[in-house]
UniProtKB/TrEMBL annotation:
TM spans (from-to): none
PANTHER family in the cross-refs: BIOTIN PROTEIN LIGASE, BIOTIN--PROTEIN LIGASE
Protein name: biotin--[biotin carboxyl-carrier protein] ligase
Lineage: Bacteria, Bacillati, Actinomycetota, Actinomycetes, Pseudonocardiales
GO cellular component terms given for this protein: cytoplasm
Molecular function terms from GO: ATP binding; biotin--[biotin carboxyl-carrier protein] ligase activity
CDD domains: BPL
Domain named BPL/LPL catalytic: residues: 12-199
Lineage top rank: taxon: Bacteria
Length: 273
C-alpha cells in the first residue's frame, strides 16, 4: 500500500496555503501524542501536526492501547494553543474532533455515529472505527494535544477488542468510496480545522460554537440506557438524556439527574438504526 504523501499534505494544509503551522509524517513512533506533548515544552507552534505510518505504543483513554498497524489507518496528533479558551474548556475539544471525524466519514460515504465521549462507531453497531484522545499540557502557555486514530482499511491481522469495547471496523468496510490515506488525512485535517476554529472562537462553549446541536444529532448514546464507569467511583446506570455545553453527559438515574464529565459508557442495548 502507498505511504502517506507528506509533501502533498504540506502543500495543501500548511501555511500560507492552509491553516496548519507545520506537518510531519514519520515512519514509526511510540505515540504521536507523546511526541507532541514533548514538543509543547520545546516551543512547537500552535496547530502543529504529526502523523505516523505506525505507532508501537499508541494509547487511548485511561492508558489503553490503540492498535496502530502500518498501511491501514491514520494515526495523527495536533498540538493546539488556544490561548483564549480557558483551561476548563479543553474537555469539550473532543466533541469538536468527533464531529470532524463524522464529517469526514460522511463525505467518504461511510455511515457512522458518535458514542460519548469520544468514540466513532459504525451506525449499524458492528464496531468502532475511530477514537479520540485530548490531553491538556501545562507549560508556560497552556496547550492541548489532540490525538485521532482512524481505521481506514481493514487490518491484515485481526485486532482484539479492549476490555468491554467493540470490535475494530474500518471506513472501507463501512462503504467509504476513498481509502487513499493521504486523501483521507487531507479531508480529516480540513474538517478538524473547520470544527476547531468554531470551538476556539467560542472559547470552548459548544452551544455558542454551534457544535452542540450537531453533536446531539449524531450521538447514539442519547436516548440509550447506559452504564457509566468512572474511575474510583461506583458505576452509574441510567438513561442518557443530554450533552451539555461543556460536553458533559446528563443522565436520568433512579436517584435523580446526574452530570458526568468523564467516564466509560456502555450502551445497555445495541445502538442500531
Amino acid at each position: 500500500m502507498p505511504s502517506l504523501d507528506a509533501a502533498r499534505l504540506r502543500a495543501e494544509l500548511v501555511r500560507p496555503t492552509g491553516p496548519y503551522a507545520a506537518l510531519d509524517v514519520v515512519a514509526s513512533t511510540g505515540s504521536t501524542n507523546a511526541d507532541l506533548r514533548e514538543a509543547v515544552t520545546e516551543g512547537a507552534a500552535d496547530r502543529t501536526v504529526l502523523i505516523a505510518e505506525q505507532q508501537t505504543a499508541g494509547l487511548g483513554r485511561r492508558g489503553r492501547m490503540w492498535v496502530s498497524p502500518p498501511d491501514t489507518g491514520l494515526y495523527l496528533s495536533v498540538l493546539l494553543r488556544p490561548e483564549r479558551v480557558p483551561f476548563s474548556g479543553y474537555g469539550s475539544l473532543a466533541v469538536a474532533a468527533g464531529l470532524a471525524v463524522v464529517d469526514t466519514a460522511t463525505e467518504l460515504g461511510a455511515r457512522v455515529v458518535l458514542k460519548w465521549p469520544n468514540d466513532v462507531l459504525a451506525r449499524d453497531g458492528r464496531g468502532k472505527c475511530a477514537g479520540i484522545l485530548a490531553e491538556a499540557v501545562a507549560s508556560d502557555e497552556n496547550a492541548v494535544v489532540l490525538g485521532l486514530g482512524v481505521n481506514v482499511r481493514r487490518a491484515r491481522e485481526p485486532v482484539r477488542p479492549g476490555p468491554g469495547s467493540l470490535p475494530a471496523v474500518s471506513l472501507a468496510e463501512l462503504g467509504a468510496r476513498v481509502t487513499d490515506r493521504t486523501k483521507v488525512a487531507r479531508l480529516l485535517l480540513a474538517s478538524l480545522h473547520a470544527r476547531e476554529k468554531r470551538w476556539r472562537a467560542a472559547r470552548g462553549d459548544l452551544a455558542a460554537a454551534g457544535l452542540l446541536a450537531d453533536y446531539r444529532a449524531h450521538c447514539a448514546t442519547l436516548g440509550q440506557e447506559v452504564k457509566v464507569t468512572v474511575a474510583g467511583a461506583k458505576a452509574l446506570v441510567g438513561r442518557a438524556v443530554d450533552v451539555d455545553e461543556a460536553g458533559a453527559l446528563v443522565l436520568d438515574t433512579t436517584s435523580g439527574r446526574r452530570t458526568v464529565f468523564a467516564g466509560d459508557v456502555t450502551h445497555l442495548r445495541p445502538a442500531v438504526e
